[in-house]
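seq/struct pair 1
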Amino acid sequence: MLHFTNLMAWYQAQCNGSWEHHYGIKLQSLDNPGWQLTVDLIHTDLQGRRMADIAEGCGPDGHPRSPRWICCLVRENQFRGVCDPTQVERLLQAFDRFRTSGVAEPQ
């Protein structure tokens, strides 16, 4: 729950009367099944930050190859992550680590 609280605080800190009208955060379910997290980084202190891709249990196309999987990357000023239904907390942790250190590798 801590990582969701951190995500909410980061979102609130970005809301300046303009950013939230054009950008934001999406957390949605997938039909794999799984979860998808997309965070717009443009016009934030994270804009332009890079990270090494995370791909556990995913093929090169990002599609799951095992029952437990998580894939995260930063492209086009967005943090994008997907995971199986059991790893949503780990997905939020990956963003939190990226946000605080520039490294998203979950331990």
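seq/struct pair 2
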Amino acid sequence: MSDWRRVTRQHRCPICGKPDWCMVSKDGLAAICPRVQSNKYLEGSGYLHILADKLPAVPPPEPKREPPANMWALAMKYHRALTVLLLNRLAGQLGLDPRMLMALRMGWDEFRQAYTFPMRNGRRDVVGIALRNIEGRKWAVGGSHNGLFLPRLTGSADPLLICEGPTDTAAALHLGFQAVGRQSCTGGVDHLRVLLGDLRPFRVVIVADADGPGQKGAADLAEQILPLAKSVRLVTPPAKDMRKWLNQGAKRADVCGLIAAAMPIGASHGRSRTEV
């Protein structure tokens, strides 16, 4: 396996987009993904995917320059560079309302040919910029710190959905919920604690992917934020993620039903259960 490398948060799997378990060949022409099936299974490793007709698996290199001192200014520069054509292209590709992507201050980096999403800390300061190219590969601007994908939250968010990634967050906004996204299924815990301590939302709903890391990351987060909300629920959409569920026709009522069916974390220890 010396010709293969493990994926990371910076260099994610080109097949499933996740930062763990998968491998990519050093020449960027093949990937082994245990999540997405192909017609070739490698025992003990996963499914083999040939990438010869796709872009190289490794994102383009960062330009050699000092990390920007002001991430907010850079994020706004990218935001101003976003054209209606580019916005509608990604919205159409993902099946999202363009206004929801704009709510996250999405932008465009001409140098990297990638869409940009500012990442914020719990005090709402921009601390990094996530990148997504047209093929769906994800990385970040040099000097970035992982943070939250935050739209403008109005008052007490009830319920507030915590999603994974900017496009799932946009999907939750599309369905009429207030939502915040974290960069991965394990990231952003400290930022969320600061944010929730400020918002003190009535209910929090963690939207988890169905895979093992997604479920564990959501359960760990629930324990960390339990004191900061009146109730915390964990739900798993009947699809790969919230965006895919939306694309399959999910309505707000479907999400509300899923939330209502979920027992609040800690309910068996005297915490109240409030219906949606």
